[in-house]
Each structure stands twice: as C-alpha cells, then as structure tokens.
Amino acid sequence: MKLNEIAPKEGSIKERRRVGRGIGSGMGKTSSKGQKGQKARSGVAIKGFEGGQMPLYQRLPKRGFNARVKNDYAEINLGKLQQFIDAKKLDVKGTVDEAALVKAGLVRRAKNGIRLLGTGELKSKITLNISGATKAATEAVEKAGGKVEIIDKSVAPVQRKKPKSDGSM
Question: Domain span at residue 125?
Fold first, then answer.
C-alpha cells in the first residue's frame, strides 16, 4: 500500500450538488427550489404561519389549571430545630408557635406558614403549633415525647353571586 493509493471507503463521501448550472443539468434555472417567492430564498422563517388564517395553536383551546392559591411554606428540618434548642435560642417550655420560630431566627419569615420536615433527629420534648408537618416529622416529635398541632390556614372558597331571576321564561 502506498500513500498515493489511499482513498476513502466506497460510498462514504457524497459529491456536492452543483445547482444553477444550466437546464441540461436538471438543477438549473430555479436550482430545484420550485418557482419564485419567499420559500425559494434563504432565511425563510414561516414555521407557524398559515397565510393570515388563525394558526392551529391559537385555534385549539387552552388546557390545564393553575391554582390561584398556592401555599408557599417556610420549611424547617428536625435537625435544625434541635440545633436551635441545644444553642438555647429556642425556648421549649410551653407551646412553640410560628412567631416564636421566626423570632428565634430559625426562619426569616413565615410566608404562608411553617412546615416541619423529617430530616435529622429530635431529642427534646417540644409542642409545636405550625401550619404543616410531614408524617415522618410528626412521628419523630411524638417519639421524643412532644406533640405537633396543625393550624388550619385554608382559604375559604370564592362565593359567586347567583344570577337574578326576574320570573320570565
């Protein structure tokens, strides 16, 4: 084998198409792009355009639902709660509510309430009065001899006015 005999594998290289080189080539005049117009030129960007007709994506109805009321809870882990108790930043005598947790610096603000998560270990007996807690967190607090009381902060449903009936049918 010699360097001048090296060639790529048969069929691996495709020759480039020479367009616009006369009608005899079969790709002359319009270069196999059809007739004149926007699509025969470069830079065509009419993917969703339907010629002024209302596009399909606008004709179809909207689907899905976005809840207007979303509960955004400030979250606390059991381990962090125990750290604050050990550092004597949080007083566990009596009931600890959301205001006490904010005052201690455990959370910056209560948002729509405070939710207790089950990561970490709790050794102290504590009574919590908070907006929510996971099942694992509640079990861990009860195992340590404490109690979790859930505050119901649910938003009342919107009352719609009934249409006035004038008695005519």
Answer: 74-150
At 138, which CATH number? 3.100.10.10
Report the chain (169 residues): mean pLDDT per 10 consecutive residues.
92 91 88 82 78 89 83 92 93 91 93 92 93 94 94 61 60
Which backbone phi and psi does 138 adopt, to 5 degrees? -60, -45
Residue 46 lies in a domain: no
Neighbouring residues of 126: CB distance < 8 A, sequence distance ≥ 6: 81, 85, 92, 96, 141, 144, 146
Residues contacting 20, CB < 8 A, separation 6+? 27, 28, 29, 31
- Spell out where 10-168 has E strands: 74-77, 95-97, 114-117, 127-130, 132-133, 147-150
What is the pTM (predicted TM-score) of this model?
0.53
Instruction: At 65, list the tokens.
Output: 């639902």
Q: Is residue 120 part of a domain?
A: yes
Q: What is the CA radius of gyration of the chain?
A: 36
